[in-house]
Specification:
Blueprint lengths: L1 E5 L7 H14 L7 E6 L5 H9 L3 E7 L2 H13 L4 E5 L11 E6 L14 H7 L6 H11 E12 L3 H10 L2 E10 L8 E8 L6 E2 L3 E2 L9 H10 L2 E5 L3
Parallel strand pairs: 1-11, 2-3, 2-5, 3-4, 5-6, 7-9, 7-10
Antiparallel strand pairs: 6-8, 7-8
Helix pairs in contact: 1-2, 1-7, 5-6
């Protein structure tokens, strides 16, 4: 999959590849994956496009607040010949006019009280000032069907708040996976699958370890990159 990205701006990273793989692993227990999927904060479009490529019965929808990334989401859907409905604006404010079967997102999740990049595009893409966690979960609950599925990644240190807010907005935590840089390092990322109005017990996946003792990608991470098979082209649109 060819993906155009900005020369000077936020580019997709391994978090999105790991989330894509986590979604696919959870989809395995369902026989027929179909319906409306919303990629929240679509950026270059990578996450929704990878899923739509694998699951042909899914209808892709994208929501993006930044004009530059609205351009890249559109360009990459056209380049990869995948149809999509693009909603322009803040996820919290957009009126979609329909409900979705799936919401997926690699949202901005760094705390707003840390030292920020001077690049305005990077600030919006990385820090949750632009999309606070509660607003993110609350709006997802509003736009998902009664049994809708919600997949996202987040800073693992905020797990307590994530669980509290999912419960508040009637989500059941279906599955979790922690991502560790190395076996000797604490988890830095959490992959979350929550479902509306479900009572299933939570599945905890084996942790995903990124680097081995030689600082090479582990076999599992190599297989995820191979499955994603993306090729990035950086362009300057200013």
């Amino acid at each position: 999959m060819v993906l155009y990205q900005p020369m000077n701006g936020y580019c997709y990273n391994s978090d999105t590849h790991f989330l894509y793989n986590f979604i696919c692993e959870n989809f395995k227990k369902y026989k027929n994956i179909k319906g409306e999927l919303l990629d929240i904060g679509s950026g270059s479009g990578i996450l929704g496009l990878l899923i739509a490529k694998d699951y042909s019965k899914i209808t892709l929808n994208q929501c993006e607040i930044q004009k530059m990334f609205q351009f890249f989401s559109s360009k990459n859907t056209q380049t990869n010949k995948i149809d999509s409905n693009l909603y322009k604006g803040s996820f919290e404010e957009v009126e979609f006019g329909k409900v979705f079967d799936y919401c997926v997102s690699n949202p901005p999740f760094y705390h707003g009280n840390v030292v920020k990049s001077e690049n305005e595009s990077l600030k919006i893409a990385r820090y949750n000032d632009s999309l606070p966690l509660e607003g993110f979960i609350k709006k997802a609950a509003k736009v998902l069907k009664n049994d809708g599925k919600f997949f996202f990644c987040y800073d693992s240190k905020q797990i307590n708040e994530i669980i509290v807010l999912l419960n508040k907005y009637k989500f059941n935590l279906e599955a979790l996976q922690f991502v560790h840089p190395k076996t000797t390092k604490d988890a830095t990322l959490i992959l979350v699958y929550a479902r509306r109005n479900s009572k299933s017990l939570t599945k905890i996946f084996n942790p995903l370890i990124v680097f081995d003792e030689n600082n090479d990608f582990t076999q599992e991470v190599q297989s995820i990159y191979k499955k994603s098979s993306t090729y990035s082209i950086k362009v300057d649109i200013e």
